[in-house]
User: Fold these one by one.
Assistant:
Number 1:
Amino acid sequence: MSRTALIGAKILFGLLIFVFIGILLYSGGIAKIYSSVYASPASHLAPNLCDANPATAARNIIEWERVNINNVIGKSDLCLKVASLDDVSWTYRSRCGACGEFSYLFTDLARACNLTVMTVNNPGEDHQWNAVLINGSWITVDSTQPNESHANYGYDVPDDFYENNSYAGAWAKNLSYVYGELPNGSRIDLTARYSTTGNVSVYINRDGALVYVISNSYVPRKPTGLKCTPINHYCNFNLGNTSYEFIAVGPGWLDYDSVLVNVTTNSATNITLAPTFRPLERWGALAQTIG
């Protein structure tokens, strides 16, 4: 083989390796390979964290996460780029994560301690936390807030903590839609627990459309995770106090004018989404918005 051919082969091999690593990073493959080597951390951590008192066990888990997991929320970090959100073994081994990683790791450890726990999701404002069933009541747990006295150091966080700007360390953001995922996989609407709400009734004069609710509270046009197939041409939403865009799609190539709405406490708003036709490039932008 000539020297030129050898150099070309080495360059090609290097490019293939580079592409392979890129695919692994993009798909979470490194995290999957890494995690397959290690079992869930719950199996060996639980004996040191669990307690006969469920409140003590929950606090032990919060404290363990505070000491051992680097909170990289709001930062660009490799650990968030290669791991799937609920891959607790990767979070444990990489020792870093944001709210979603903290929440899923808390869930895994809490269940190992026989606690009844659910994840609490707020997609529109991009946050996630937990609730633990203690003596028949759901107690809010946010293990990303272990240093905040106004959040009770992450255990029994006040319901208004995320919206009340008088609390040190609070978000002071209006929450759009909050839901809990129960151990059996079902969802419950928790918006009214963490925010004051108003109602929006959406009318569409055609069957087969999907209505999406987009929040403009935290960042512009952030999907809330709410969508609805109209029943008798109507969708009804109870939402937190902030601004929204309502979008409907389908059926076929039919599109609808979007409508902006500001929801306030106990407000009742009626809107109509009127059908229209859009150029094809509209669909790419719309699909990116609603996910």
Number 2:
Amino acid sequence: MRKAEHDWLRNGEILKLKKQALKKNLEKIDSYVTGEWRRKGIKGLVIFSCLEVDFWQVYELPVGLRSSLIIGDEPHAKELVALLNEFKRFCVVSVSRKKARFFTVGLNEIEEHQGVMVDEWVPDQVKEGEWASLRQSRIARHIEDHVLHHLKDIARLTYNFFVEHKIDRLILAGHKELIPRFRAVLHPYLQERVAGEFNAEPDTPLSEILKRSLLVEKEIQLREEEYLFNKLRNENHEGGLAVIGLRPTIEALMRGQADTLVIGDGQSRQGFVCYKDHYLSVGSGDCPVCGDALHESSDVIEDMIHLALNQNVQIEHLTHIDEFREKDKYGALLRFGL
């Protein structure tokens, strides 16, 4: 950051006011990172700062990022958006016979949405003599009708909440015997997106809801990564729809073949690049397009990600598959084979 600050502040083309504004922003970022911020297990940190318009936004991420400082007139958010798109947003609905609570979970944080809490009167039992003319079975059916109506109301609100907040997956919580009944009245669209479930009481603390939700999230993330890893392995053959390894992955990107770029968490690698023609290489030499010498890149993986974003290629990081992170490290699912 010190080098970038020095280079910008000595550039004669930058107006004095811009220099002062830039210096204030850099000082605040430096003060936050070295003083106020505490890592607390956070692997990545992204900061947007424009004090001239009172804008300051911090994102703490569960994956590591290459350290860099980007200064410009517009937020450099493309990579962040792509990274955030990898992480699913979950809606947690905790149901009981009398009420429901709605939560959103994402990036290891949880928020309870009080505005959609359902709290209805559902009888637990009927007083003796209150329904003297009815048999016991009819009394029980009357209570269960109330419960079913209650669950259908929650299901309707869940669908609206899910769509309105652009949720990716649904987690069901509540009493063990009630969850299957609630799941049965959900819209088919939601039933297909149920990620898991866990037992919870109506007054379970927010911290405990988050803890149990993250366990469900980790389980489904592991299943999805295993599926992606197995697909890479099974399709990695001549004429197949996958490649594994740095060089084949770079070549697939440059041919426009890549549909999904897969990277092991925390990977970085030096390489060479022609920024004019978007040509990447693991070795030095000349660009085959323009003939100019390739520039050395401190992290060709970052250049791969830039190229993938420009091609609207989906990007996935594998964080739980040790075999891929330690051996293969890079791969791509392809749109077409050769």
Number 3:
Amino acid sequence: NSFCTLLCKMGKLVFDLDNTLYSFNETGFSGDMRERIHKWFEQSLKLSPEAAVALSNQYYKEYGLSARGLKIHHGEADLEGYLKFVHDLDLTKLTACPQLRVMLESAAAAGWEMWVMTNGTRKHADDVLVALGVADLFGSRVYDCRDQWAASAPGEVHNKPEQSAYEGFAKHSKAQPGETMVMIEDSMMNLHAPAALGWVPVWISYGQDLPADAEPKSRVIKTILELPLALEGLTP
């Protein structure tokens, strides 16, 4: 068992979903989602193709999620329609990964409580977890974009990478004071706030060099299957 129960006692493993539990390179989902985002902006906001790309990218950079920009600046927009359209992906490109399941089963056996925290939708997360063959290991422990927005202060809209989103998750998941919290992400910008809260940040690099905005406390692994290496030495 690659998870040592003496070193890795109970805590929470909080996984990002897309490009974390599976690789975008293996599915092409990154390009598929970008195309659908740009198409929706173009058609629904009546923008030129160039303006649609520019605005959706601007919202992503400013808010960590293009949908949040829509919610803030385009209250009349069909946000539910947007979320459904963007996540309408061909999940047959995803296949169950036996090694992933074995690793997650080992983590659960070692006492880790596993969650998905995603800026996507719960339905998308559930569908991906089913396709990967690990849905039963997470159950209902999915915290999605709507959960993050609902936990925001009145009149505000927060999601990853903002610190309040992680604070909302901690409350929702009933995290105990001092409990070990591990955030596993492919996006470095989503690791700064958890690190500031005392969580353990784990960055999946896929072999890339550390970016200029690297979180200094990050534990770096190449793929999700190397997660046991990042958890070595952790205590409750």
